[in-house]
Design goal:
The structure is a homooctamer.
Chain A lengths: L2 H13 L4 H10 L2 E5 L2 E4 L2 H5 L5 E2 L5 H12 L3 E5 L3 H10 L4 E3 L4 E5 L10 E5 L5 H13 L4 E4 L7 H5 L2 H5 L3 E6 L5 H8 L4 E5 L11 H8 L6 E3 L5 H14 L2
Parallel strand pairs in A: 3-4, 7-8, 7-9, 9-10, 10-11
Antiparallel strand pairs in A: 1-2, 4-6, 5-6
Chain lengths: ~250, ~250, ~250, ~250, ~250, ~250, ~250, ~250
């Protein structure tokens, strides 16, 4: 049901040819396509939020991922995240043409459908251990139609590396910074770059790092106003936020 | 030292008329203007980040706030946040023309200097108890040059109120959502609006609310990808992030 | 020992034919039926609380579950919860006629014995990942004699889905709402429905979700007075509470 | 706007005399009665949820409480909770006829308007330090039209006191149990009574009690299935939940 | 080195035949018997504290447990705790005569050597899931020479069971109460029995139980003064404390 | 109602002259002596637990403390704890003969009534900041009839002080060790003394000390088996536990 | 009792003119100089640890601080920390010649006695709000005999400020870095400087900063190996650690 | 690129033969040697911080560890930490001459290259369970060129063992103390030794030990000023810090 169909239905309500209750029932009922016993996809989502459905693989079986990606591929292309290597093997066997990005735990299939125009997003990564989350963010941003600049291994302990690449980063319109442990990178970056900056804490670390809670707390406590934060390891959320912003910049 | 002066200095380094060490010393030394024993203002900040210095009143005495605002007012106007009523009385007595916004705990003085063009920001507020934080965000955004749409008291427990105002919100380019307690508003809003959405948890609540930690956790755990979050009660941070985004949208 | 036997015993104490100490010993001693070395079933429980014994499978071996269900089946039917797939295979092999509900991790055997009359309970579920806990609640409620309306995948990020089914939910007398992550569903539902509402947080989520603690905190902090809460993933507890209420409504 | 007016408006939409957008605007706009700058009352709430607006005094000034109670009193009677002694003095001076319950921190004014019929609620209290929260629950329940049985000082350390009153409690249809510190009372009560049981943890205690978090955790971890829980010190929430249940029992 | 040898050495220091430094060296050096690369046993411990060395199996390999038990058995008998089933198989194969208590995860070998006289200890257990920890406490207490009364499955949800056995418990001189989840048993017991009472929280539970932290907090917050507490699942610590007390009672 | 009266009543039940329900009513009803609106004293407690009622002043007004102490003084003497200096002034003015111990925040009145015989208790204190809690424990123990040895300022940072007094401590039958911050004292003491050892963490410290939670955790994690622990700052609980043990040692 | 006296005493033990018990008693007894009811000073401390006693003012009254400083001044000079402005006024009135450093909350009196030689310590401070803690560290280090280089307001959000002063810092032998909020400064510094680096988290911040716990966690999680950390706001501890190191560097 | 090359490059900038941008590019670009897709080594690090790169094995595959060690071995020798037994087998098969220290989970290859002179470091270990972390610290310190004194099994529960070895420890210039559970060892040691003391909490313990958080908290709360702390189980960090200090002491 696209925007035209919806407008028609509401006209019918005004014309009295469809009762309000019936209209409510139809709007509610239509979008439910049951692709499997426990997996419901929402074809309305892109209409409402500008972001298409993506498959969150962590809480699904390989079979559910396959069914969901097949259904979504009808719109032109699909992406699944948090797919571990074991599930990925099953998914790739069932979906010819699908590609698996191991570090990012992402499966992609099909071409990216036409998307709204979008400015370039820098995905900056503090340490080699954070690369998986950064790559998840980069792949999702590309799936949503954004050009991506990847900048890796620029943690603050080797400040010269970061400074050598600041100009490149400044030329992008939005910055996603991925950092674990004490997560100092976004604080330094926030003082150097005047673009919207989205920080992703990662669960890299041990002991008092508390699986990323300290990185999260450090990012939220940061002294540079204007940095915003997403959940630990949430590359998808950061990518979606960055794309929504980058679409405004064109 | 503005951008022109900086370029001149770097040219002198290349020309050999200024030694690199000397240049580094000058760049480092110049911006420090000591307005009081413990208050250092950074006139370089706007140059680097596009956001002027604002006075964070919580950790300063009334006298320090006065000194800092006087210094900053030379650039055209100044704002101080987290100023309680007692300090505000002293500040207003010392700064003729200053205005105090009590619920927001904000002091403003002078006209807003010319700022880069900026799209409209919606500041949406869940409950009456969250109004102070929301107003802080709105005032800071206006100080930074943004038009602001204020939408109050649209918590999810009275869903019809929120739905009645969704179209207005959708017409803005960036949304700041302020919510305490269980902070469900941004989740609902995120499913209704396709704009960048910045959520501010507040410390409103008691018992298990843990001074806003539960609201913060709920926002970060939200099921709508693309919402980003700032620290508890951090209206300033949300405003700065929203302005950076809204400047891209014009 | 049923209520009649108990009354007889107390009459004997009054009559002096049984010493108080002896009566205490008998009351204490009788209900202990040792079905296995470490599993004690309490046939008195239904007498005292109106709720029959159910087998909590998480801390029991498959053999202990089999023994307990056999003993309880003598009363007409039995249910075991938190039975993983491996244990379930053993249990089903040993108990002909038993059925396994995989997503809910529940084993059922025998017909439901006659129960007190009970109004209909709505079990409402926010996301597909929460379906297992919701189904546990629904199966336990049915075992206790309640008619159940299942409403799935009505998370607040797709508000229209929930609104499309609100009238159905309103026609039930008690509502159980199951929600993980930020758990916003019960807040929205609480503003739409005037029935007793029991919320079940789930451990669905990652990072700052803290295995359901944030969902729990959000539910307890909710702004709609009158919602009550049970432990994380505790479908059984919610079902029992709902049934006790629904029995009052007939 | 009552239910009749709402039905009329929807008929007009069907008849085409009112545009859907206009109807949405009216429904959204009408209920906002601004009684003060920051206090919005929702006259629709009773219509939607069966529970009238009550004034939460903690985040309001004495003047705001007075204005809100005056507005609500027009419906027949009003109640404000979390009103400390200082605010209460101001409120009582401004509202002739108002009564202050000090331990419960509750202000009441006016007669209770006619309410739906409601079964009796037992409010049971573990220790003398918990009496304030218990009394808040009792007063709110009475304001909502419920008969209340108060049972005090029956903590489990003096088990005989509790046993002496169990029969009385059993004769009620719903039980609210208020307990701080280790909150063992509801566990014992849950094994003795077969009625719906709502537990309220209190912030009574020190050291590791963590302002009620341990009591809350203990209640949620309780071994008796079917007990539900509200936020720490939340006598209002427990009363509302209990009344919703007790209304089903008549 | 026993007490006689120690006295002799100190006499030699006074006599000047052994230099103080030399005496310190000898006292420090003698007790180190390296039974394996990483396992040091302290034969002095019983001399100093009245409690012999016991093998804590959790952080040792099966081979290290075997070596340690062989060394300790020379004193007459040995006990190892926290030995899982896999390690136990290896240990029993290597130590003929050793016995494994599976639920308690305890390995015993040899007769109990003569111990100081000791009064009877009651080990009381709330639920069937807590039996392992209770049995660990009971076995360790018996190894230390104490007669033990085991009282099982007397959780407060079935109060009559506990009341039926209170007189037996009262006849013991010390009580160890083992309880998980909300851990209400010791609170009830503390009001019924006037003996020293040591409570052991267990990690039984799920969700908000936090692996026993809530049980621990509830026990420490208990309203009956005089109950003392040990670490979660620490049956050994409770047994040692109880034996030290019970030895005073003879 | 003393033990004789209770025995008479139960004889009457057996004789049929008193109905069981009536007996239950009388046992339950008798002990409630309402000395003030919210303060209930339990004259039965000493009968049941061997420990008389003590007044916990933290949650009571000065007037309630006075009423409670007057009532309890009829038994020969009374003690109130957690009485701050302001309340104490009021209490002493109302109760001639009462004495206030400021550091311990304890009020005492009357002679100590005859108590069961009791061995000596050592109350050992790590730092000068912990002296208040230690003195509370000492005064309560003396009120309960125990001889007390006070050993102060023997923290482990000055090990020689502790070693100089170990022999004195060893001659007592029970040891109470009071320690804040990292609470290392009981670990050292536990390796030196073979008596029952009760540790009291205090809230002394700052930053990561978390108001005593770290001290509590350190004590429960201690490597010397047999130490038991009470709540933070709980001198009363430690004293009661120690007295129960010391009474066994005579 | 200095080292000579101690050696004499031990010689007497060897010679048999002093019994070992007597020697132990003397060593234990001597150092206790009771300057007030609850304040014990340890003149032995400098002998054992190289660091003289300093007065921790937080848990002492103004009178106790005066008594302690007078006693310590006999050794040549004294310092008290955590003295708030109110106490300081009393202390300065009683101790002519004492000086109060308000931001650092430190009172000093007398000249610094001769100390062991010591290399220069850099005390580096991230933000203006952290200056109090940094100054406490600097004053204590100077009291212990260290030359101190103060470097202020070099937080990472203005990286150029820090880079401008790195060479100065590098010329010191030990670095103390004071930082609140997200505490990124020590991470950046640790990559630029090869000296021992001690980090002090401060309680500056709000919301999720948790009174410095996040800063502490970030510092401990830092990616630069070799940084060590002290408790939140613990300027004294950092200074003592730095001085111990700096004394090795001469 | 060594220090000479860096100086040459900067001279070229001054001479105008290399543009500043080009110089920045070269400095930034050179140090990146990609030894594998996700493992970047920083040959500059030793230049900047005096500490060579070490391989952190926890977040790398066996193949990545092999590649990194081969690259680093070119500088003369290499070390990898947190290498579990499975990975170690692969690494040793690929790197002839490599040695595996199982308890410490460390792989070493090659001779230690010439390092700056360094005083002796004492690595002191509380319990046998902490030996792995202590050995990691000792091996890393030796790799960095430090002589190490290992002192094992001197926990405070057997104080005589520690006292017997204090003189040896005092002769070292820096002390690393490794302790889990309640971590009391460093407190005792800090009162006995006047050297810089670095404490390493370990994750040894169970229940309330919280995987080392309590040990960490206890160390940071310690009453002996001057002890500094590293992250839980962080033997590497303690070794690096100790070596930096010990290099100052020669």
């Amino acid at each position: 049901m696209d925007r035209t169909q919806l407008a028609q239905l509401l006209d019918q309500v005004r014309a009295g040819t469809v009762a309000p209750e019936e209209a409510a029932r139809r709007i509610g009922a239509l979008p439910f396509v049951e692709v499997a016993q426990a997996v419901v996809l929402d074809h309305h989502r892109e209409l409402r939020t500008g972001i298409p459905e993506m498959v969150y693989g962590a809480s699904k079986t390989a079979d559910q991922i396959v069914l969901a990606m097949r259904e979504l591929e009808k719109d032109g292309g699909a992406i699944a995240t948090r797919v571990d290597a074991t599930k990925a093997a099953t998914v790739l066997a069932a979906l010819p043409g699908a590609v698996y990005h191991e570090a990012a735990r992402v499966v992609r299939i099909g071409a990216v459908p036409p998307r709204p125009p979008c400015a370039t997003i820098a995905v900056v990564c503090a340490g080699t251990s954070d690369l998986g989350v950064a790559e998840e963010a980069a792949l999702v941003a590309e799936f949503l139609g954004a050009p991506v600049l990847r900048v890796g291994d620029v943690g603050v302990a080797g400040l010269h590396r970061l400074l050598a690449r600041v100009d490149e980063i400044r030329r992008c319109d939005v910055v996603v910074a991925v950092a674990g442990m004490e997560a100092a990178l976004p604080s330094v970056l926030g003082g150097l770059v005047d673009r919207p900056l989205i920080a992703v804490p990662t669960s890299v670390g041990y002991g008092v790092s508390l699986d990323g809670l300290v990185a999260l707390g450090a990012l939220l406590s940061g002294c540079v106003p204007g940095t915003t934060v997403v959940n630990i390891d949430n590359g998808v959320g950061a990518a979606v936020a960055a794309v929504k912003i980058a679409r405004l910049a064109v």
